[in-house]
Amino acid sequence: MKIPKSHPRYDSLMRRETLVRAWKAGIVVPEGLIAHGRGEAFDYLFGERTIAPALVAERAGAAWLLRAKRPVLSVNGNVAALSAREVVRLARSIPARIEVNLFHRSEARVRRIRQLLERVGARNVLGERPNARVPGLESKRALSHREGVYGADVVLVPLEDGDRAEALVRMEKVVISVDLNPFSRTTRTASIPVVDELSRALLNIHRFAQELRDDPKEITRLTRTYDKDRNMAALYSFLRLGLNGVRATGGTRGRRRP
Ligand code: ATP
């Protein structure tokens, strides 16, 4: 389907098309399409833009990734379909390892995602032939690599499920999540929850990493001063203000709210 560039929700519709194509190519599972729909609903509430508290979390996340000894970016089907290039660019600039991790795991899908990442420049992607298990997880999401997520000190887990986020926090890792749902278990559990749309979040984290890389003092300051509770409180008040704004104007088309 050809979507006109002038459509007010062009980016969002393009993301849907991309996901459907990735589903046909065996990268995304149908359950991933449902999860995306939930993300879209929250993005609509935020006005389909990055709100200020998300920027604060993205900057802190960049600082933690730069400070890490063993940073790892975790990739699932939706992440590969929507943002393979952004993941690879971020991995290069930190530098960090990439590990493919799937809830609905099949070896063929792990391989296809690894190949997709390699086509846009990734090297040494982990995921096939796992050699460790994240303790406390029954699902195939437990499968991991000692030189990847299992052994990491800081992990970026975009579009994660709550069980694994909790298990990784229990392993005392710094867990940076990207999830538009401000109430998900992932968001509530992560050390640094980024409540923003995936591709915007990855672009911002990359931009902040570029800015911060030669500024160790600012990196240390950010990792010391980031306060999850305050950040989430700010995020909830943005959400409240946004909803009040919709009520006051009687419509949902004021795209630049709150
Ligand atoms: P939890 O266990 O954390 O409570 P869940 O397991 O129900 O959540 P999933 O079904 O794994 O969550 O879905 C992952 C989450 O990713 C959803 O909460 C959804 O809001 C979010 N999401 C989906 N697409 C995007 C996207 N493009 N950008 C950011 N977040 C997204």
Structure description:
- With 258 residues, this protein is an alpha/beta fold.
- The protein has a single domain (52-236), classed as Rossmann fold.
- It has helices spanning 10-24, 30-45, 52-67, 77-93, 107-119, 162-170, 185-189, 198-212, 216-225, 228-249, and strands at 71-75, 97-100, 132-133, 143-144, 154-158, 174-178, 192-194.
- Helix 7 (185-189) links the parallel strand 6 (174-178) and strand 7 (192-194).
- Helix 3 packs across helix 9 and helix 4 (77-93) crosses helix 5.
- The protein is globular.
- Residues 252-258 have low confidence and may be disordered.
- Adenosine-5'-triphosphate binds next to helix 2 and helix 7.
Which structural class do you get from the secondary structure elements? Answer: alpha/beta
CATH topology: Rossmann fold
Which overall shape is indicated by the principal axes computed on the Cα atoms? globular
**Domain count:** 1
Strand line-up in the sheet with most strands: 2-1-5-6-7
SSE string: HHHEHEHEEEHEHEHHH
How many H/I helical runs? 10
Oligomeric composition of the shown chains: single chain
> What number is the mean pLDDT?
93
Major pleated sheet = 5 strands, parallel
Secondary-structure arrangement, i.e. CATH architecture: 3-Layer(aba) Sandwich
The proportion of residues forming helix, as a percent range, comes to: 40-55%
Beta fraction? 5-15%
